[in-house]
Amino acid sequence: MEKQDMDLTVNLGGIIMKNPVAVASGTFGYGREYEDYLDINGLGAVIVKGTTLEPRHGNPPVRIFETAAGMLNAIGLENPGVEVFLNQHLPYLIDKDVTVIANIAGNTIEEYAALAARLEGCKGIAGIELNISCPNVKQGGLQFGTDPVMVRDVVKTVKANTSLPVMPKLSPNVTNIVEIALAAQEGGADALSMINTLMGMAINVQTRKPVLANVFGGLSGPAIKPVALRMIYQVHQEVDLPILGGGGIMNTLDALEFMMAGATGISIGTGNFVNPRLAYDIMVGLQEYMQENQINNLNEIVGIAVQK
Amino acid sequence: MEKQDMDLTVNLGGIIMKNPVAVASGTFGYGREYEDYLDINGLGAVIVKGTTLEPRHGNPPVRIFETAAGMLNAIGLENPGVEVFLNQHLPYLIDKDVTVIANIAGNTIEEYAALAARLEGCKGIAGIELNISCPNVKQGGLQFGTDPVMVRDVVKTVKANTSLPVMPKLSPNVTNIVEIALAAQEGGADALSMINTLMGMAINVQTRKPVLANVFGGLSGPAIKPVALRMIYQVHQEVDLPILGGGGIMNTLDALEFMMAGATGISIGTGNFVNPRLAYDIMVGLQEYMQENQINNLNEIVGIAVQK
Amino acid sequence: MPLQENGLVINHQQVAQDMYIMEFMAPAVARECQPGQFLHVRPGNTNDPLLRRPLSIYDADQEKGSISLLYRVVGAGTSLMTGIRENDYIDIVGPLGRGFTLPAPSKTALLVGGGVGIAPLVYLGRALIQRGCQVTAMMGAANENQLVAGDRLLEIGVPFLPVTMDGSRGYPGMVTDLLVPPVYPEEIVIYTCGPEPMMAKVAEYAQRYDIWGEVSLEEHMACGVGACLGCARRLKANDEAYVKVCKDGPVFNIMDVEF
Amino acid sequence: MPLQENGLVINHQQVAQDMYIMEFMAPAVARECQPGQFLHVRPGNTNDPLLRRPLSIYDADQEKGSISLLYRVVGAGTSLMTGIRENDYIDIVGPLGRGFTLPAPSKTALLVGGGVGIAPLVYLGRALIQRGCQVTAMMGAANENQLVAGDRLLEIGVPFLPVTMDGSRGYPGMVTDLLVPPVYPEEIVIYTCGPEPMMAKVAEYAQRYDIWGEVSLEEHMACGVGACLGCARRLKANDEAYVKVCKDGPVFNIMDVEF
Ligand SMILES: Cc1cc2nc3c(=O)[nH]c(=O)nc-3n(C[C@H](O)[C@H](O)[C@H](O)COP(=O)(O)OP(=O)(O)OC[C@H]3O[C@@H](n4cnc5c(N)ncnc54)[C@H](O)[C@@H]3O)c2cc1C
Ligand SMILES: Cc1cc2nc3c(=O)[nH]c(=O)nc-3n(C[C@H](O)[C@H](O)[C@H](O)COP(=O)(O)OP(=O)(O)OC[C@H]3O[C@@H](n4cnc5c(N)ncnc54)[C@H](O)[C@@H]3O)c2cc1C
Ligand SMILES: Cc1cc2nc3c(=O)[nH]c(=O)nc-3n(C[C@H](O)[C@H](O)[C@H](O)COP(=O)(O)O)c2cc1C
Ligand SMILES: Cc1cc2nc3c(=O)[nH]c(=O)nc-3n(C[C@H](O)[C@H](O)[C@H](O)COP(=O)(O)O)c2cc1C
Ligand code: FES
Ligand code: FES
To answer: Which of A157, A295, B168, B235 sits at a 20 to 30 Å CA gap from A20?
Structure first.
């Protein structure tokens, strides 16, 4: 197969990516941080750091900690707020030729609505990833992402405030991921992003205290890959939405596993820290796989392992 | 501190262990399999392989698969049934001087009841660990362990059929582990065992099929340690029952983390496969820690990291 | 009695692309090694790779107290092993499993190995020669370079027929092509280890001519000692129960296995 | 411009209990190295340890194209690094972060290092000498054996005062005990790296006598490039915002930091 015959384009519920490889929110800054290491235009999409309405300072340190084949983070959504994002960070990415996905987070449904409305009509944003792993302050801190009714409502509200494709990012800390995915679909989601981090912690035996100032943090990296694959597989079996799959992807074979489990696109998070050009390398690796296996379009393998 | 001043004894809701280190169900057979490597009498408890009423052949291979810092298993509860357990395997352990905890599993509440009744009065069993991660066939396969009402009911039923201490083993695949723990307490649980495996999977990119014949398997090993610690911490904060904590323990420091998160005793599973004398080594390591830190009784550090 | 030991590596060499032979001192384990048994080897000290890797005993010198492994690099664990150098230690548990059954000294033994499957047959060859058996090895590989056990077999005194898929040495084709109808089948015993399709053909041959034989099987393993029930295999398609390859095997009677 | 490079290890030696110096060829990175910057080093190739480890540039030879690291073994990553041998490759990203500011050549620079904190001060010393500054290093350690950078400092031409906690060499006590009231504070600049209590004392001294200075801070890091916001630190207790040690630092003005 010749390179020119290969179609790597991906349509993630209206978000068009030139190849399936996205970089995950919070792990790639606003793109610029990695420009020395790879060609950002070679990526399928850059999902920028989670943005809130107002600036947030985030959690006190220690914010991150390495665990076996994984890491915990409790950044606390430090970000400069949506205005600074739009005025100071987005222009850099607009100058590039890459799909930009905004990632938004709020503590109330109104904040999500306001964020979606603010992004409406902004040039250079291809879609919205909804981070619903934030505590819902109105509901006593219960995460939006763990209750199907809240998931449906927040998606619906965001959809009502934007013409952009909306992709809720599902939390894996739930009993029944399919139920949550169906609720997102009911709310009008165009695609699903899976998975966010597993909630975990570590203890410093010396000090006899939790390592993270925030006590709990999100577990990411290869450690969670089996859980991510399982959830994507389950959702692909039952729900008819394209999935952006991630959680511990470290190489091309991992990426292929996610696609075979049902992910139309894949996202690289923690892997960027280990190899700053990983996303690019995987994009090249997927092309090689297509050549070796005579695959014109990677859609041929999406969900191929799933027994429906 | 002199060795003779140290008290390692642990009371796990009526299950007395001479030290806090148990070996986890399904990872240590019936004890005999490891007799060449360590002194079984040095262990706090042996939790035997999950036992069902009737013999089970288990799942077809592939049953296990290594993942990053972890492994998946889908053994499918292969076991010779409760009669063979009592007649052929238990006597070996009774001859030893070690606390034996039976682990029982059923597909219906009646099976749990029958198993508890069968064990009633059997010499040499110190307590029952209730594996509630099995699919409840009457409720369409939903696991007992993921629904608080079912958890309460199965614990209550088992308690009604036995005079032994009952320790349900909680599944981590839930949105709210505290709710499950409280339900177990309501049902009359004497202690809690946490955590069982996380549900995961892997895909063979070559064959484009799930690696495990059963598609899904339980993830264990160091990869899940942060999740286990978090859940134990959360439960210790809210629930007044002793906890047998495990999930990825590979050394003494890990064991101490679990105790500081709220575990009265700890269990070694996957670690036995890596180092067949790990449980014994950790028991010795805990003694050394007590000596170095002038601790008479490890209860002093149980839950010490938990902010109540 | 199997045990855990830290072997002191005294020799570690690449013998072909992706094939290595490692020799280490582990006197307590070496003393116990029977042909066909395996060691459970820890490839590194961190949590990834996590589990031990089962590797056959390629050779053992009980007097010297050393054991040799022949391994092919296929994944993370074996890759990591290639970095182990002389004077490093390697953490092993063993010997594990049920090894080969030795025949009466009057028998002629046929060893049929494919690829790295030759490994357990070499130490078996040594035991058979010691016992006074006639032994012939048939050793198949992709090409000449992969025929790595030849020198060792010669040293032991086992004559062998090399077979290569690309014809670069010995008979061109499959090792099973050499399985001609035996004149005195009752005089022969056959041992085989290698890819399953190859072993299937050997089993067919043994069945057809009613030759007693044994095969060595592989299955993914966690504990290696019969505790986890991870290495289950149905010997025959219609069997209800499973055997544990680590404990009931890895060596099984060739008639008991359906491929 | 920072980049990723596979450095070819040309020298790796244990210089004290738990202290190692590793030198490798990485010409593209070496070319860019400024004193006070760090490399993000991958300790192994598997997923555990997973993240890179930040290590200061201990020395660099831009002509030769080599970089040296001085590291102390404290955990899994640095333990694994000790197994790297000559002719192995080491995966590095760098140089990263904001390094030290060089003063006017007329200034006298005081380098105050504690333990392995001496590492970045050595390459700084080299740059200062090149620039024509007067330089004096004060180097504290637990004992004589831990005073590992002495030879290198001599080679560079930086006079140094050894200080040991146990008095086994040089001044007995803490390195900060040597911080006497300066006669011409405006002629002096001070650079420090080491345990926080030590740096706190140096900062107090600099503040008291109004000496310009810089400190090098440590924080757990994931990306090392300013993307993950993991290495946040409040410079002053009452600051609302955090700095990123990897990008805004690791070197900060001594007056900006509250310990
Ligand atoms: C009884 C027995 C004896 C063996 N003897 C030899 C020998 O002498 N020389 C040799 O080169 N190989 C031998 N093998 C195969 C060897 O165990 C695998 O090649 C090795 O485990 C691969 O590990 P890895 O990390 O490199 O590969 P990976 O594919 O990364 O391993 C991932 C996981 O799968 C398991 N696995 C992968 N392939 C196999 C396999 N074929 N059999 C069992 N588990 C596997 C690994 O142990 C590990 O748990 C033997 C296998 C068994 C069961
Ligand atoms: C800018 C900078 C420069 C440094 N320069 C040097 C140097 O030249 N020589 C040297 O010996 N050490 C230096 N350190 C400290 C060094 O990074 C740690 O000792 C090392 O990361 C420990 O890794 P480990 O796996 O052995 O320890 P572990 O404790 O097992 O590491 C676990 C995790 O904690 C992190 N960690 C542990 N200690 C530190 C620390 N002090 N600072 C930051 N992260 C830490 C590790 O990177 C890893 O992510 C520097 C740190 C920073 C931030
Ligand atoms: C340091 C860090 C910061 C993160 N910040 C965000 C964020 O702001 N918004 C979000 O939706 N996800 C965030 N995530 C989650 C990642 O986008 C990703 O979903 C997760 O890490 C799992 O993928 P991985 O295993 O490839 O890292 C963050 C993850 C890490 C490690
Ligand atoms: C191979 C295997 C078999 C298991 N079988 C059982 C079982 O029969 N009953 C049970 O309650 N838990 C079973 N478990 C779960 C373990 O007891 C333990 O809870 C889990 O593995 C987490 O601990 P670890 O990370 O230390 O292994 C099994 C785990 C493994 C790896
Ligand atoms: S590998 Fe555990 S029973 Fe065979
Ligand atoms: S380590 Fe990622 S921002 Fe500093």
So the answer is: A157
